[in-house]
Design a protein that fits this description.
The complex is a heterodimer of chains A (372) and B (178). Chain A is α+β, with helices and mostly antiparallel strands and 372 residues long. Helices cover 27% and strands 21% of the residues of chain A. In chain A, helix 4 runs antiparallel to helix 5. The relative contact order of chain B is 0.14. Chain B has 178 residues and is mainly alpha-helical. Chain B has one domain: Fumarate Reductase Cytochrome B subunit, CATH 1.20.950. Classes of the chains: A alpha+beta (372), B mainly alpha (178). Chains A and B meet through helix 1, helix 2, helix 3 and helix 8 of A and helix 1, helix 2 and helix 4 of B.
Chain lengths: 372, 178
Protein backbone atom coordinates (compact mmCIF):
# COMPACT_ATOMS: atom_id res chain seq x y z
CA UNK A 1 0.00 0.00 0.00
CA UNK A 2 1.52 3.36 -0.91
CA UNK A 3 1.61 5.89 1.83
CA UNK A 4 -0.87 8.75 1.34
CA UNK A 5 2.06 11.13 1.80
CA UNK A 6 4.03 9.62 -1.02
CA UNK A 7 3.72 11.52 -4.37
CA UNK A 8 2.01 9.58 -7.13
CA UNK A 9 4.41 7.78 -9.47
CA UNK A 10 5.66 10.03 -12.30
CA UNK A 11 5.16 7.26 -14.78
CA UNK A 12 1.79 5.61 -14.70
CA UNK A 13 1.83 1.93 -15.60
CA UNK A 14 2.63 1.49 -19.32
CA UNK A 15 -0.74 -0.03 -20.00
CA UNK A 16 -2.50 3.17 -18.96
CA UNK A 17 -0.21 5.83 -20.37
CA UNK A 18 -1.71 5.78 -23.86
CA UNK A 19 -5.29 5.30 -22.74
CA UNK A 20 -7.12 8.21 -24.36
CA UNK A 21 -9.89 7.96 -21.79
CA UNK A 22 -7.63 10.24 -19.75
CA UNK A 23 -8.99 13.04 -21.96
CA UNK A 24 -12.25 12.71 -20.05
CA UNK A 25 -10.53 13.56 -16.76
CA UNK A 26 -10.02 17.11 -15.50
CA UNK A 27 -6.31 17.00 -16.40
CA UNK A 28 -7.08 15.58 -19.82
CA UNK A 29 -9.65 18.24 -20.60
CA UNK A 30 -7.28 21.02 -19.54
CA UNK A 31 -4.54 19.57 -21.77
CA UNK A 32 -7.02 19.09 -24.62
CA UNK A 33 -8.06 22.73 -24.31
CA UNK A 34 -4.42 23.84 -24.51
CA UNK A 35 -3.77 21.70 -27.59
CA UNK A 36 -7.01 22.80 -29.26
CA UNK A 37 -6.24 26.43 -28.46
CA UNK A 38 -2.79 26.22 -30.05
CA UNK A 39 -4.18 24.63 -33.21
CA UNK A 40 -7.06 27.10 -33.49
CA UNK A 41 -4.69 30.05 -32.98
CA UNK A 42 -2.40 28.80 -35.75
CA UNK A 43 -5.27 28.22 -38.17
CA UNK A 44 -6.60 31.71 -37.38
CA UNK A 45 -3.18 33.28 -37.97
CA UNK A 46 -2.83 31.45 -41.28
CA UNK A 47 -6.34 32.47 -42.34
CA UNK A 48 -5.64 36.08 -41.42
CA UNK A 49 -2.39 36.12 -43.42
CA UNK A 50 -4.23 34.68 -46.39
CA UNK A 51 -6.93 37.35 -46.26
CA UNK A 52 -9.70 34.86 -45.47
CA UNK A 53 -10.85 37.03 -42.56
CA UNK A 54 -11.15 40.15 -44.75
CA UNK A 55 -13.02 38.89 -47.82
CA UNK A 56 -13.95 42.37 -49.06
CA UNK A 57 -10.43 43.69 -49.54
CA UNK A 58 -8.89 44.33 -52.93
CA UNK A 59 -6.54 41.45 -53.66
CA UNK A 60 -5.07 40.04 -56.86
CA UNK A 61 -7.99 37.73 -57.66
CA UNK A 62 -10.51 40.53 -57.08
CA UNK A 63 -8.55 42.82 -59.39
CA UNK A 64 -8.52 40.20 -62.13
CA UNK A 65 -12.22 39.54 -61.50
CA UNK A 66 -12.70 43.25 -62.25
CA UNK A 67 -11.11 42.75 -65.68
CA UNK A 68 -13.27 39.71 -66.35
CA UNK A 69 -16.42 41.60 -65.35
CA UNK A 70 -15.51 44.56 -67.56
CA UNK A 71 -14.53 42.55 -70.63
CA UNK A 72 -16.43 39.29 -70.41
CA UNK A 73 -14.89 35.83 -70.44
CA UNK A 74 -12.18 35.19 -73.04
CA UNK A 75 -10.57 31.90 -72.02
CA UNK A 76 -6.95 31.43 -72.96
CA UNK A 77 -6.26 35.15 -73.37
CA UNK A 78 -4.59 37.75 -71.18
CA UNK A 79 -7.03 39.61 -68.95
CA UNK A 80 -5.57 42.88 -70.20
CA UNK A 81 -3.72 43.70 -73.42
CA UNK A 82 -5.57 40.68 -74.75
CA UNK A 83 -5.14 41.33 -78.49
CA UNK A 84 -1.58 41.01 -79.65
CA UNK A 85 1.08 39.56 -81.89
CA UNK A 86 4.54 38.17 -81.09
CA UNK A 87 7.71 40.00 -82.08
CA UNK A 88 11.29 38.85 -82.40
CA UNK A 89 14.55 40.66 -82.81
CA UNK A 90 17.58 41.80 -80.87
CA UNK A 91 19.00 44.63 -78.82
CA UNK A 92 22.37 46.19 -79.58
CA UNK A 93 23.75 47.90 -76.50
CA UNK A 94 26.24 50.70 -77.06
CA UNK A 95 27.56 50.58 -73.49
CA UNK A 96 26.37 54.10 -72.64
CA UNK A 97 24.17 52.94 -69.75
CA UNK A 98 26.86 50.72 -68.23
CA UNK A 99 28.08 53.54 -65.98
CA UNK A 100 24.69 53.60 -64.27
CA UNK A 101 23.79 49.90 -64.34
CA UNK A 102 25.91 46.78 -64.01
CA UNK A 103 23.23 44.78 -65.90
CA UNK A 104 24.84 42.65 -68.59
CA UNK A 105 22.31 43.93 -71.10
CA UNK A 106 24.02 47.35 -70.99
CA UNK A 107 27.52 46.10 -71.78
CA UNK A 108 28.36 46.70 -75.43
CA UNK A 109 27.00 43.83 -77.48
CA UNK A 110 23.88 42.12 -78.75
CA UNK A 111 21.24 40.13 -76.88
CA UNK A 112 18.27 38.25 -78.31
CA UNK A 113 14.84 39.73 -77.73
CA UNK A 114 11.33 38.44 -78.13
CA UNK A 115 8.15 40.16 -77.12
CA UNK A 116 4.68 41.24 -77.97
CA UNK A 117 2.84 44.16 -79.50
CA UNK A 118 -0.68 44.52 -78.14
CA UNK A 119 -3.66 46.76 -77.64
CA UNK A 120 -4.61 47.84 -74.12
CA UNK A 121 -7.91 46.36 -73.02
CA UNK A 122 -9.17 42.93 -72.19
CA UNK A 123 -10.99 42.02 -75.41
CA UNK A 124 -8.93 39.77 -77.68
CA UNK A 125 -11.17 40.30 -80.73
CA UNK A 126 -11.74 44.03 -80.43
CA UNK A 127 -11.39 46.15 -83.57
CA UNK A 128 -8.23 48.26 -83.82
CA UNK A 129 -8.94 51.95 -83.37
CA UNK A 130 -6.64 54.87 -84.20
CA UNK A 131 -6.55 56.02 -80.57
CA UNK A 132 -6.26 52.65 -78.83
CA UNK A 133 -3.38 52.55 -76.36
CA UNK A 134 -0.68 50.26 -77.74
CA UNK A 135 1.93 48.31 -75.83
CA UNK A 136 5.30 46.72 -76.39
CA UNK A 137 6.35 43.92 -74.03
CA UNK A 138 9.92 42.63 -74.20
CA UNK A 139 12.00 39.73 -72.97
CA UNK A 140 15.78 40.17 -73.07
CA UNK A 141 17.63 36.90 -72.61
CA UNK A 142 21.05 37.69 -71.18
CA UNK A 143 24.16 35.54 -71.76
CA UNK A 144 24.28 33.96 -68.29
CA UNK A 145 20.58 33.09 -68.28
CA UNK A 146 19.34 36.19 -66.54
CA UNK A 147 16.11 37.62 -67.94
CA UNK A 148 14.83 41.16 -68.21
CA UNK A 149 11.14 41.69 -68.95
CA UNK A 150 9.44 44.99 -69.50
CA UNK A 151 5.95 46.08 -70.49
CA UNK A 152 5.60 49.56 -71.99
CA UNK A 153 2.70 51.67 -73.29
CA UNK A 154 2.51 54.48 -75.84
CA UNK A 155 1.12 56.97 -73.32
CA UNK A 156 3.26 59.57 -71.50
CA UNK A 157 2.07 58.73 -67.96
CA UNK A 158 -0.12 56.06 -66.39
CA UNK A 159 -3.72 57.12 -65.68
CA UNK A 160 -3.82 55.67 -62.14
CA UNK A 161 -1.40 55.69 -59.24
CA UNK A 162 -2.04 52.30 -57.66
CA UNK A 163 -4.08 49.11 -57.77
CA UNK A 164 -6.98 50.69 -55.89
CA UNK A 165 -7.20 53.47 -58.49
CA UNK A 166 -6.91 50.94 -61.31
CA UNK A 167 -9.71 48.82 -59.89
CA UNK A 168 -12.01 51.79 -59.27
CA UNK A 169 -11.41 53.04 -62.80
CA UNK A 170 -12.12 49.56 -64.14
CA UNK A 171 -15.39 49.30 -62.19
CA UNK A 172 -16.43 52.82 -63.25
CA UNK A 173 -15.73 51.97 -66.90
CA UNK A 174 -17.55 48.63 -66.80
CA UNK A 175 -20.68 48.76 -68.97
CA UNK A 176 -23.94 48.79 -67.06
CA UNK A 177 -25.80 45.57 -68.01
CA UNK A 178 -29.03 47.59 -68.44
CA UNK A 179 -27.73 50.24 -70.85
CA UNK A 180 -24.72 48.40 -72.24
CA UNK A 181 -22.66 51.53 -71.54
CA UNK A 182 -20.56 52.72 -68.63
CA UNK A 183 -22.36 54.98 -66.21
CA UNK A 184 -21.01 58.54 -66.76
CA UNK A 185 -21.82 59.41 -63.16
CA UNK A 186 -19.61 56.55 -61.94
CA UNK A 187 -16.73 57.84 -64.05
CA UNK A 188 -17.24 61.36 -62.69
CA UNK A 189 -17.27 60.01 -59.15
CA UNK A 190 -14.04 58.13 -59.86
CA UNK A 191 -12.33 61.28 -61.17
CA UNK A 192 -13.55 63.27 -58.19
CA UNK A 193 -11.92 60.78 -55.84
CA UNK A 194 -8.71 60.63 -57.92
CA UNK A 195 -7.44 64.10 -58.89
CA UNK A 196 -4.12 62.50 -59.90
CA UNK A 197 -6.03 60.60 -62.61
CA UNK A 198 -7.62 63.81 -63.87
CA UNK A 199 -4.17 65.34 -64.34
CA UNK A 200 -2.71 62.20 -65.89
CA UNK A 201 -5.65 61.78 -68.28
CA UNK A 202 -5.17 65.37 -69.45
CA UNK A 203 -1.49 64.64 -70.21
CA UNK A 204 -2.46 61.43 -72.04
CA UNK A 205 -5.07 63.25 -74.13
CA UNK A 206 -2.62 66.03 -74.97
CA UNK A 207 -0.09 63.56 -76.44
CA UNK A 208 -1.09 62.65 -80.00
CA UNK A 209 -1.31 58.97 -80.91
CA UNK A 210 0.93 57.76 -83.70
CA UNK A 211 -0.39 56.10 -86.85
CA UNK A 212 0.75 52.60 -85.95
CA UNK A 213 2.88 50.27 -83.86
CA UNK A 214 6.16 51.03 -85.62
CA UNK A 215 6.16 54.82 -85.13
CA UNK A 216 4.95 54.73 -81.51
CA UNK A 217 7.05 55.62 -78.51
CA UNK A 218 6.64 53.05 -75.74
CA UNK A 219 7.18 54.33 -72.21
CA UNK A 220 8.08 52.13 -69.26
CA UNK A 221 5.97 54.48 -67.06
CA UNK A 222 7.04 52.99 -63.73
CA UNK A 223 10.31 54.16 -62.22
CA UNK A 224 13.15 51.74 -61.51
CA UNK A 225 16.60 51.98 -60.01
CA UNK A 226 19.77 51.32 -61.92
CA UNK A 227 22.58 49.98 -59.74
CA UNK A 228 26.15 50.20 -60.98
CA UNK A 229 29.26 48.20 -60.03
CA UNK A 230 30.02 50.63 -57.20
CA UNK A 231 26.53 50.02 -55.79
CA UNK A 232 25.26 53.52 -56.62
CA UNK A 233 21.50 53.56 -57.14
CA UNK A 234 20.02 55.96 -59.70
CA UNK A 235 16.29 56.46 -60.29
CA UNK A 236 15.42 55.95 -63.94
CA UNK A 237 12.53 55.64 -66.35
CA UNK A 238 12.93 54.24 -69.81
CA UNK A 239 11.28 54.41 -73.20
CA UNK A 240 11.59 52.81 -76.61
CA UNK A 241 11.73 55.76 -79.02
CA UNK A 242 11.01 54.86 -82.66
CA UNK A 243 13.44 55.46 -85.49
CA UNK A 244 10.46 55.64 -87.85
CA UNK A 245 9.21 59.22 -88.17
CA UNK A 246 6.06 60.00 -86.23
CA UNK A 247 2.90 60.12 -88.31
CA UNK A 248 -0.32 61.16 -86.60
CA UNK A 249 -3.10 58.62 -86.16
CA UNK A 250 -5.88 58.52 -88.73
CA UNK A 251 -9.03 60.44 -87.82
CA UNK A 252 -11.30 57.49 -88.57
CA UNK A 253 -10.72 53.77 -88.34
CA UNK A 254 -10.25 51.87 -91.61
CA UNK A 255 -12.57 48.97 -92.30
CA UNK A 256 -9.97 46.29 -91.49
CA UNK A 257 -10.53 45.32 -87.85
CA UNK A 258 -6.82 44.54 -87.59
CA UNK A 259 -5.48 47.53 -89.50
CA UNK A 260 -2.86 48.45 -86.88
CA UNK A 261 -1.44 44.91 -86.86
CA UNK A 262 -1.66 44.55 -90.65
CA UNK A 263 0.22 47.85 -91.09
CA UNK A 264 2.95 46.58 -88.74
CA UNK A 265 3.35 43.38 -90.77
CA UNK A 266 3.54 45.42 -93.96
CA UNK A 267 6.08 47.77 -92.38
CA UNK A 268 8.30 44.85 -91.33
CA UNK A 269 8.09 43.33 -94.81
CA UNK A 270 10.00 46.43 -95.96
CA UNK A 271 12.73 45.88 -93.34
CA UNK A 272 13.24 45.75 -89.58
CA UNK A 273 11.77 48.48 -87.39
CA UNK A 274 13.99 50.05 -84.75
CA UNK A 275 13.72 51.89 -81.47
CA UNK A 276 16.31 53.63 -79.30
CA UNK A 277 16.24 52.63 -75.65
CA UNK A 278 16.26 56.03 -73.98
CA UNK A 279 16.99 56.10 -70.26
CA UNK A 280 15.77 59.17 -68.39
CA UNK A 281 17.95 59.81 -65.34
CA UNK A 282 15.97 61.01 -62.36
CA UNK A 283 17.23 63.46 -59.76
CA UNK A 284 16.69 63.24 -56.02
CA UNK A 285 13.13 64.31 -55.35
CA UNK A 286 11.74 63.05 -58.67
CA UNK A 287 8.76 60.86 -57.79
CA UNK A 288 9.56 57.16 -58.15
CA UNK A 289 6.34 55.98 -56.52
CA UNK A 290 3.80 57.65 -58.78
CA UNK A 291 3.47 56.75 -62.46
CA UNK A 292 0.82 59.44 -62.98
CA UNK A 293 3.47 62.15 -62.57
CA UNK A 294 5.89 63.04 -65.37
CA UNK A 295 9.45 63.93 -64.49
CA UNK A 296 10.71 67.41 -65.43
CA UNK A 297 11.45 67.61 -69.15
CA UNK A 298 15.05 68.75 -68.63
CA UNK A 299 16.25 65.48 -67.11
CA UNK A 300 19.37 63.93 -68.62
CA UNK A 301 18.71 61.11 -71.06
CA UNK A 302 21.01 58.32 -72.19
CA UNK A 303 20.65 56.47 -75.47
CA UNK A 304 21.51 52.92 -74.31
CA UNK A 305 21.24 51.19 -77.66
CA UNK A 306 18.94 50.09 -80.44
CA UNK A 307 16.14 47.54 -80.40
CA UNK A 308 15.57 45.90 -83.76
CA UNK A 309 12.27 44.15 -84.40
CA UNK A 310 12.80 41.88 -87.37
CA UNK A 311 9.57 39.91 -87.54
CA UNK A 312 6.17 39.26 -86.06
CA UNK A 313 4.33 35.98 -85.80
CA UNK A 314 0.95 34.88 -84.47
CA UNK A 315 0.65 33.95 -80.82
CA UNK A 316 1.24 30.24 -80.42
CA UNK A 317 2.38 27.63 -77.92
CA UNK A 318 5.79 28.44 -76.47
CA UNK A 319 6.14 31.96 -77.87
CA UNK A 320 5.06 35.31 -76.41
CA UNK A 321 1.58 33.89 -75.80
CA UNK A 322 2.98 31.74 -73.02
CA UNK A 323 5.15 34.42 -71.46
CA UNK A 324 4.29 36.52 -68.43
CA UNK A 325 5.80 39.96 -69.11
CA UNK A 326 6.05 40.77 -65.43
CA UNK A 327 7.91 44.10 -65.11
CA UNK A 328 9.54 42.99 -61.87
CA UNK A 329 11.49 40.23 -63.63
CA UNK A 330 14.76 42.11 -63.64
CA UNK A 331 18.46 41.29 -63.98
CA UNK A 332 21.03 42.33 -61.39
CA UNK A 333 21.70 46.02 -62.00
CA UNK A 334 18.01 46.98 -62.33
CA UNK A 335 15.79 47.12 -59.27
CA UNK A 336 12.12 47.91 -58.84
CA UNK A 337 11.28 51.28 -57.29
CA UNK A 338 8.72 51.93 -54.57
CA UNK A 339 6.07 52.43 -57.26
CA UNK A 340 3.06 50.47 -55.91
CA UNK A 341 1.98 49.61 -59.45
CA UNK A 342 5.01 47.35 -59.90
CA UNK A 343 4.02 44.91 -57.18
CA UNK A 344 0.36 45.10 -58.21
CA UNK A 345 1.22 44.42 -61.86
CA UNK A 346 3.39 41.48 -60.85
CA UNK A 347 0.59 40.02 -58.71
CA UNK A 348 -2.19 40.59 -61.24
CA UNK A 349 -0.12 39.31 -64.20
CA UNK A 350 0.60 36.16 -62.25
CA UNK A 351 -3.11 35.44 -61.71
CA UNK A 352 -3.90 36.25 -65.35
CA UNK A 353 -1.05 33.98 -66.49
CA UNK A 354 -2.11 31.09 -64.26
CA UNK A 355 -5.74 31.30 -65.37
CA UNK A 356 -5.03 31.43 -69.08
CA UNK A 357 -2.38 28.71 -68.83
CA UNK A 358 -5.08 26.25 -67.80
CA UNK A 359 -7.72 27.38 -70.28
CA UNK A 360 -8.41 26.06 -73.78
CA UNK A 361 -6.74 28.08 -76.53
CA UNK A 362 -8.26 29.61 -79.64
CA UNK A 363 -6.29 31.33 -82.41
CA UNK A 364 -5.60 35.02 -81.84
CA UNK A 365 -7.63 37.54 -83.83
CA UNK A 366 -4.70 38.70 -85.93
CA UNK A 367 -2.74 36.09 -87.87
CA UNK A 368 0.11 37.61 -89.88
CA UNK A 369 0.39 36.13 -93.36
CA UNK A 370 2.85 33.26 -93.38
CA UNK A 371 6.41 34.27 -94.09
CA UNK A 372 5.80 37.88 -93.10
CA UNK B 1 12.40 7.47 -20.89
CA UNK B 2 12.88 8.05 -24.58
CA UNK B 3 16.43 9.14 -25.35
CA UNK B 4 16.90 12.54 -26.97
CA UNK B 5 17.50 13.43 -30.59
CA UNK B 6 21.07 14.54 -31.25
CA UNK B 7 21.69 18.27 -30.74
CA UNK B 8 22.20 18.71 -34.50
CA UNK B 9 18.90 16.95 -35.21
CA UNK B 10 17.11 19.19 -32.75
CA UNK B 11 18.75 22.31 -34.20
CA UNK B 12 17.70 21.32 -37.73
CA UNK B 13 14.19 20.47 -36.57
CA UNK B 14 13.53 23.79 -34.87
CA UNK B 15 15.28 25.87 -37.50
CA UNK B 16 13.18 24.25 -40.19
CA UNK B 17 10.03 24.51 -38.08
CA UNK B 18 10.46 28.28 -37.97
CA UNK B 19 11.43 28.57 -41.64
CA UNK B 20 8.63 26.33 -42.92
CA UNK B 21 5.93 28.06 -40.88
CA UNK B 22 7.25 31.44 -42.05
CA UNK B 23 7.26 30.10 -45.61
CA UNK B 24 3.65 28.90 -45.41
CA UNK B 25 2.49 32.25 -44.01
CA UNK B 26 4.48 34.17 -46.65
CA UNK B 27 3.04 31.94 -49.36
CA UNK B 28 -0.59 32.35 -48.34
CA UNK B 29 -0.15 36.10 -47.76
CA UNK B 30 1.63 36.54 -51.09
CA UNK B 31 -1.08 35.05 -53.28
CA UNK B 32 -3.73 37.35 -51.87
CA UNK B 33 -1.65 40.51 -51.75
CA UNK B 34 -1.16 43.27 -54.29
CA UNK B 35 1.10 45.73 -52.49
CA UNK B 36 3.35 43.20 -50.76
CA UNK B 37 3.35 40.58 -53.51
CA UNK B 38 6.69 41.45 -55.08
CA UNK B 39 8.55 41.72 -51.79
CA UNK B 40 7.08 38.47 -50.46
CA UNK B 41 7.85 36.56 -53.68
CA UNK B 42 11.43 37.82 -53.46
CA UNK B 43 11.72 36.16 -50.03
CA UNK B 44 9.63 33.09 -50.92
CA UNK B 45 11.91 31.82 -53.70
CA UNK B 46 15.31 31.81 -51.90
CA UNK B 47 13.68 30.67 -48.65
CA UNK B 48 12.15 27.72 -50.47
CA UNK B 49 15.52 26.71 -51.87
CA UNK B 50 17.08 27.08 -48.40
CA UNK B 51 14.42 24.73 -47.01
CA UNK B 52 15.16 22.25 -49.81
CA UNK B 53 18.87 22.30 -48.95
CA UNK B 54 18.16 21.96 -45.22
CA UNK B 55 15.79 19.06 -45.91
CA UNK B 56 18.58 17.26 -47.77
CA UNK B 57 21.05 17.95 -44.93
CA UNK B 58 18.47 16.70 -42.47
CA UNK B 59 17.88 13.48 -44.38
CA UNK B 60 21.63 12.84 -44.44
CA UNK B 61 21.94 13.71 -40.76
CA UNK B 62 19.18 11.20 -40.05
CA UNK B 63 21.46 8.42 -41.34
CA UNK B 64 24.22 9.44 -38.94
CA UNK B 65 21.98 10.41 -36.03
CA UNK B 66 18.97 8.09 -36.27
CA UNK B 67 15.93 9.24 -34.32
CA UNK B 68 15.42 7.53 -30.94
CA UNK B 69 12.96 4.68 -30.90
CA UNK B 70 9.45 5.50 -29.77
CA UNK B 71 8.46 4.17 -26.32
CA UNK B 72 7.85 0.44 -26.49
CA UNK B 73 4.61 0.86 -24.60
CA UNK B 74 3.19 3.12 -27.31
CA UNK B 75 0.42 1.27 -29.16
CA UNK B 76 1.55 -0.07 -32.53
CA UNK B 77 -1.13 1.95 -34.33
CA UNK B 78 0.10 5.22 -32.81
CA UNK B 79 3.69 4.27 -33.64
CA UNK B 80 2.76 3.58 -37.23
CA UNK B 81 0.88 6.90 -37.45
CA UNK B 82 3.91 8.72 -36.02
CA UNK B 83 6.30 7.07 -38.49
CA UNK B 84 3.99 7.69 -41.44
CA UNK B 85 3.45 11.34 -40.54
CA UNK B 86 7.19 11.89 -40.31
CA UNK B 87 7.73 10.51 -43.80
CA UNK B 88 4.88 12.64 -45.10
CA UNK B 89 6.57 15.68 -43.54
CA UNK B 90 9.88 14.75 -45.19
CA UNK B 91 8.12 14.21 -48.49
CA UNK B 92 6.49 17.63 -48.37
CA UNK B 93 9.73 19.33 -47.33
CA UNK B 94 11.16 18.13 -50.64
CA UNK B 95 8.00 18.25 -52.76
CA UNK B 96 7.01 21.87 -52.14
CA UNK B 97 10.29 23.52 -53.16
CA UNK B 98 10.71 21.11 -56.07
CA UNK B 99 7.18 21.70 -57.36
CA UNK B 100 7.78 25.46 -56.94
CA UNK B 101 11.01 25.24 -58.92
CA UNK B 102 9.38 23.04 -61.55
CA UNK B 103 6.38 25.32 -61.93
CA UNK B 104 8.53 28.42 -62.47
CA UNK B 105 10.51 26.42 -65.02
CA UNK B 106 7.35 25.33 -66.85
CA UNK B 107 6.15 28.96 -66.83
CA UNK B 108 9.40 30.04 -68.49
CA UNK B 109 9.94 32.52 -65.66
CA UNK B 110 13.37 33.47 -64.38
CA UNK B 111 14.13 31.73 -61.05
CA UNK B 112 15.99 34.50 -59.27
CA UNK B 113 17.35 33.88 -55.77
CA UNK B 114 19.11 37.20 -55.25
CA UNK B 115 20.69 39.69 -57.64
CA UNK B 116 22.30 37.85 -60.53
CA UNK B 117 22.10 34.55 -58.64
CA UNK B 118 19.47 32.40 -60.32
CA UNK B 119 18.64 28.75 -60.82
CA UNK B 120 18.42 26.92 -64.14
CA UNK B 121 15.01 25.59 -65.19
CA UNK B 122 14.41 21.92 -64.31
CA UNK B 123 11.65 21.54 -66.93
CA UNK B 124 11.19 22.85 -70.44
CA UNK B 125 8.64 25.65 -70.84
CA UNK B 126 5.17 24.14 -70.96
CA UNK B 127 2.24 26.22 -69.76
CA UNK B 128 -0.16 23.27 -69.74
CA UNK B 129 2.15 21.61 -67.21
CA UNK B 130 2.44 24.90 -65.32
CA UNK B 131 -1.36 25.00 -65.12
CA UNK B 132 -1.20 21.68 -63.20
CA UNK B 133 1.88 22.41 -61.08
CA UNK B 134 0.75 25.83 -59.89
CA UNK B 135 -2.45 24.64 -58.14
CA UNK B 136 -0.57 21.52 -56.98
CA UNK B 137 1.87 23.82 -55.17
CA UNK B 138 -1.05 25.40 -53.29
CA UNK B 139 -2.77 22.10 -52.49
CA UNK B 140 0.49 20.61 -51.20
CA UNK B 141 1.08 23.72 -49.08
CA UNK B 142 -2.34 23.34 -47.44
CA UNK B 143 -1.59 19.64 -46.85
CA UNK B 144 1.76 20.60 -45.33
CA UNK B 145 0.10 23.05 -42.97
CA UNK B 146 -2.49 20.41 -41.96
CA UNK B 147 0.18 17.77 -41.33
CA UNK B 148 2.26 20.26 -39.32
CA UNK B 149 -0.75 21.07 -37.16
CA UNK B 150 -1.37 17.35 -36.62
CA UNK B 151 2.31 16.86 -35.79
CA UNK B 152 2.19 19.74 -33.30
CA UNK B 153 -1.03 18.48 -31.71
CA UNK B 154 0.47 15.01 -31.40
CA UNK B 155 3.66 16.42 -29.88
CA UNK B 156 1.60 18.32 -27.30
CA UNK B 157 -0.41 15.16 -26.64
CA UNK B 158 2.88 13.44 -25.80
CA UNK B 159 3.91 16.36 -23.61
CA UNK B 160 0.68 16.95 -21.74
CA UNK B 161 -1.19 13.65 -21.77
CA UNK B 162 1.12 10.71 -22.46
CA UNK B 163 4.10 12.29 -20.64
CA UNK B 164 6.33 9.63 -22.13
CA UNK B 165 9.40 11.74 -22.89
CA UNK B 166 8.75 11.88 -26.64
CA UNK B 167 8.19 15.65 -26.60
CA UNK B 168 11.27 16.18 -24.44
CA UNK B 169 13.36 14.10 -26.88
CA UNK B 170 13.06 17.00 -29.35
CA UNK B 171 13.22 19.82 -26.80
CA UNK B 172 15.39 20.31 -23.75
CA UNK B 173 15.10 18.04 -20.74
CA UNK B 174 15.09 19.26 -17.24
CA UNK B 175 18.42 18.21 -15.81
CA UNK B 176 17.07 15.73 -13.23
CA UNK B 177 15.19 13.62 -15.73
CA UNK B 178 18.02 12.98 -18.18
Amino acid sequence: MPSPFEPPPIDPPPSGRYDLRVLLTRRGMAAGAVIGGVVVAMVAGFAWAGGFLTPGRLDQTRLIAGFEAANGAHPGFRRNHAKGVCLSGWFDSNGAAAALSKAQVFRPGRVAVFGRFALAGGMPRTADKPATVRSMALNFTLPDGEIWRSGMNDIPVFPVRDARGFYEQLVAATPDPKTGKPDPAALQAFLKRHPESVKATALIKAAPFSSGFADARYNGLDAFFFVNKAGVKTPVRWAMVPVDAFAPAAKTAPEDKNFLFAALTKRLAAGPAQWHLIITVGKPGDPTNDATLPWPADRQTIDAGVLTVAAVEAEAAGNCRDTNFDPTMLPAGIQPSDDPLLSARSAAYSVSFTRRAGEPKTPSAYQPPHGA
Amino acid sequence: MTPSFSPLSRLLHWLMAVLILAMLVIGIAMVSSLGHYRGLVAIHRPLGILILILAAIRLINRQFNPPPALPRAMPKLLQAAAQASHWVLYGLMFALPLVGWAMLSAAGNPIVLAGAWHLPPILAQNVALYAVLRPAHTVLAFCFFAVILTHLAAALLHALIFRDGVFASMTVRRSHSS
